Amino acid sequence: MKFRYLPTALCLGAVLPGVALAQSGSAQSGSAPSAASPSAAAQPVIEVTAPRLSRELYATPAAVSVVEREEIQQGQQRVRLDESLITVPGLFLQNRDNFAQGERVSIRGFGARTPWGVRGITVLVDGIPYTLPDGQAQLDAIDLDSAERIEVIRGPSAVQYGNAAGGVISVTTADGSDDPGSHIRIEGGSDGYQKASVSNGGVNGPWSHHISVSALNVDGYRDHSSTEKYLLNAKLRRELGSDRALTAIVNLLDSPYAEDPGGLTAAAVDEDRAGTVDSNFYSPTRIDAGQEVDQQVLGLQYEDLSAGPGEFYLKGFYLKRDYQQQLAYAGPVEEVGVGNFVAYDRDYYGGSAEYHQALRLGELPLRYVAGVDVGRQVDDRYREAVNIDGDHQGRTADETQKATSLGAFLQGDLDLTERWTLSLGTRYDRVDFDIDDDYIDLANDDGDDSGDRTFEQWSGSAGLSFRYLPTHQVYLSTGTSFETPTFAEFANPAGVGGFNPGIEPQKAWNREIGLRGNFDNGLDYDVALFSTRVRDSLVSYQIDGRDYYRNAGKSQQDGIEAALGWQFQPSWRLDSALTLAKYEFDDFEDADGNYDGNRIPGLPEKTWVNRLTWQGLGQRFATVETQYIGSMMADDANEVKIDDVWLVNLRGGDGWRLGGDTWLKGYVGIRNLFDREHYANVIINATNARYFDPAPGRTVYAGIGIDF
């Protein structure tokens, strides 16, 4: 289904559900918030569900960050995840402005080396895995306009979710009961930024619903960087008595175009930061580099809170994604498998079953979850050679890629005393890869490159938590994880299809100690020290502008993460997030050199975010945000250094009651207040020294909305 003409649906999304379902209660966002005193807010009961075994935060032996709805939405553009997750320590996001390549996410050094999308990190939206069986994920369909909560597990999470070493990002969207009413937003700003969104939610007896629709258009800071994108996210829930419920989820994405301006050399940056490269081999404008995406996701979830002595959850989903991307360089038709135009039709489906139970082991309380995850990915993929003028010269690859994942896990918490909790978990995973080569070019002596590979892995975790005060905790944890190569990382540098026979999964072992808690004076803290050892690290390199991968021996990833929050006055709050890390190759040598002791490229080892928020009467607010991004390297040899930078962002707004539960809201934001030159993305080990993707200077946006 296409949503190219979605503006018509924007109005319908606000009106029709409100007619169909009578709202119960007033719109929560319409009422003026009361400023809570620090002592009143000092004893929160925060539940986390991303680790699959639902716990109180102060009983969780893992580094978990929680971002709630107000922080996600208040004065934000809600376009990319970096806005919402900026105060999560240990997490670093790049590529905010290039929608064709997608936002890149790293957690504790994992995930930074992929040139597009996300890998090594499990991404969930309403329990539906957006991470594929081969380990890659895309974030372009996440609807932040409907997001109620984001949980981030920082560190290896293979026991919970399998093929992921870096952690988990779990997004929960509204279901109508927590945000009833309708919301309309219209925004505009620098670089041709335009966005419109409409949402509606409510409850009627056993039924609840929420629907959100948005349309985005951006010209972009650089030449050839415009984007058009439409999103729909809907959830319908039916209570089946007091203990059972059925939830249906629909997510639709239509991005008719997202242009790719490509990377620049240092000389090109000095000449024109907002420009592109134009040569007889590499020219994003002449070849019209960019992508087109059409995606639909359907999910169905059943919960039974009285399944015998425990709780039972059953989830199923289906994802359909049609994708095509023109890369920024010319593709020679004579090189089989190397075409620069990539397209695929993807079918991804699967589900999970979980059983939760609380019982006693002797005299000790035990809570456990046991479950099974299955997933099947089928990509009909082909490549074509396109010359520098954009003319298609012929097909160079045609294959069907299939990945099947099966995982079984068991995780439990045993309360040794009222203060001590022991957590243990184990998981078995099997991932099967299969390629059917449908392109056999006898004239070029190209044989059948079909093949298959299978990986099996056991993972384990152990944690010990001590709650020394009701809202203060110290924990120790350790765990193992693994990452298989994705299909893109299996690309064969020999220039043929099939699998690269010389690449293997990377494996990691993490050790961690953490402290968290809050005081009656409104002060809260979260500190984690981690040390991770990685074997057979998957690293990228380029040949003629195309990315390939290899295993790089060993690496070490150590650091400290600290988050501090202080509600020092009823209307004032300060938040700070600091990451100090060391990401280094421990054993990495190839034909180009020995990189032992070098920094892993694409990662700053120091980041520091501070946010001061004032919440006035009614809907009035103001926020100032400072962000320090330390220096990083762009290549394995550490010959190209990206300088550190300080950025400052501002936003503020107000609201006016129009009558009853109807509010008019206005807000304005400034990003990069002091117009600092920096880079939105660093292209690792780039061909021809095109490492740099400049970020915009000072940008301004403003929005107006109505809640009713």
Detail the poorly predicted runs. 1-42
Going by CATH, the architecture would be: Beta Barrel
**Number of beta strands:** 41
Largest sheet: 22 strands, antiparallel, barrel
Proportion of strand residues: over 45%
Number of continuous helical runs: 6
What structural category do the secondary elements indicate? mainly beta
CATH superfamily: TonB-dependent receptor, beta-barrel domain
Radius of gyration, in Å, reads 25 Å
What name does the CATH topology carry? Answer: Maltoporin, Chain A
What is the CA–CA distance across the termini?
A: 30 Å
Helix content: under 10%
Q: What is the class in the CATH system? A: Mainly Beta
Q: What is the count of distinct domains?
A: 1
Overview features:
708 residues, Maltoporin, Chain A, 56% strand, mainly beta, 22-stranded antiparallel barrel
Structure description:
49% of the residues are buried. The protein is globular, with a radius of gyration of 25 Å. The protein is built from six helices and 41 strands. The strands form nine sheets. The chain has a 22-stranded antiparallel β-barrel. Strands 3-10-11-7-8 form a five-stranded mixed β-sheet. The chain has one domain: Maltoporin, Chain A, CATH 2.40.170.20. Residues 1-42 have low confidence and may be disordered. The two termini are 30 Å apart.
